[in-house]
Amino acid sequence: MTxxxxxxxxxxxxxxxxxxxxxxxxxxxxxxxxxxxLDEAIGRDPFPAVLLRLWRGDAPTEEEAALLGSCLxxxxxxxxxxxxxxxxxxxxxxxxxxxxxxxxGILAFxxxxxxxxxxxxxxxxxxxxxxxxxxxxxxxxxxxRAAGRRLPGIGxxxxxHDLRAERLLQVAAPLSDGRHIEAVRALAExxxxxxxxxxxxxxxxxxxxxxxxLRLDPEYGDFAFAVARSFGLAAHIxxxxxxxxxxxxxxxxxxxxDGIGVPEPGKEAT
Length: 270
Description:
The chain is an all-alpha fold. The chain contains 11 helices and 3 strands, in the order E-E-E-H-H-H-H-H-H-H-H-H-H-H. The chain has helices at 38-41, 47-56, 62-74, 83-93, 98-107, 117-125, 133-146, 163-172, 179-195, 203-213, 221-243; strands at 24-26, 31-33, 36-37. It has a 3-stranded antiparallel β-sheet with strand order 1-2-3. Helix 3 runs antiparallel to helix 10 (203-213). The model has no long low-confidence stretch (mean pLDDT 92).
């Protein structure tokens, strides 16, 4: 067993019992993550590949790393009016430390925004290998409603059709068993039936399918979303600090966009 040393422990008044970790080992010159020497991985292995190895414990294939990268792209940002972005910008407007603003944005994640991927993955983990998906979806919907919860991964307050989710499901399809994709679509059908309107699979539902295909523990679902969205929050924080006046009143209902690359309303590609 390799011992992990972080300093000589001088000045300690008491020594705790020895414990172990299977994640990272640090030697005098090198850092090993799940057996991977980071100095060798730098410039060779893409970030999603190292992240997947860190979380899962084994080396991913190129296809698996690419799928995790697609997950990070899908969740990277959702505009300045997302609750986490509003929270981060509000804190940034006080000129608090940037990391405080990032922490505030992450703390805004909850059952209705940014922290339901793990629960969606847990639901998919209970999907039977055989049987009617329609029956399973109805039973799952009823159980979640009885518990006073919304069904995670289904519906969106802004998007009647979430193109991010649809594209991610397409990308995940070669690595998924197919039944999970059919399952989230069945859940959307059930919710739509009870709502009396068409309801889409959202990006959380697509992430649940993709991360399940990557054999990740459901506990990592919400972390994957938070890791991706942290990059978007960082952009909002820097823009708030460099472009806006301090302590401004931030309208949480509307924001004008003056960047590049967005088509005029009614002229979006289909």
